[in-house]
Amino acid sequence: MQVLLDETEYAEIQAIARHRRMTVAEWVRQTLRDARREEPRRAAAAKLSALERAGKYRFPIGDIDIMLGEIEKGYLAGNT
Fold first, then answer.
1. pLDDT of 38-52, one tens digit each?
2. Where are the alpha helices (DSSP H) in the chain?
3. pTM to 2 decimal places
4. What ranges do the domains of the chain cover?
5. 28 with 3: CB under 8 angstroms?
């Protein structure tokens, strides 16, 4: 794997790694592992947040059998 950084970014990463008494390579590996572990939590949190927000609204609903019948009629009308 190769990652290209400009000199400023690389210098900042070097300073962080040095401060933690790590090589840049080890800092990058550890940071990528942390990001990988965190990703599923972020995705789940975003989904839960969206559901929570959506649950606060009151949308009109219809009878499922009527709605399915209307959908079916639409499909059939498109095939004629």
1. 877 778 888 899 999
2. 7-19, 24-54, 64-78
3. 0.51
4. 1-58
5. yes
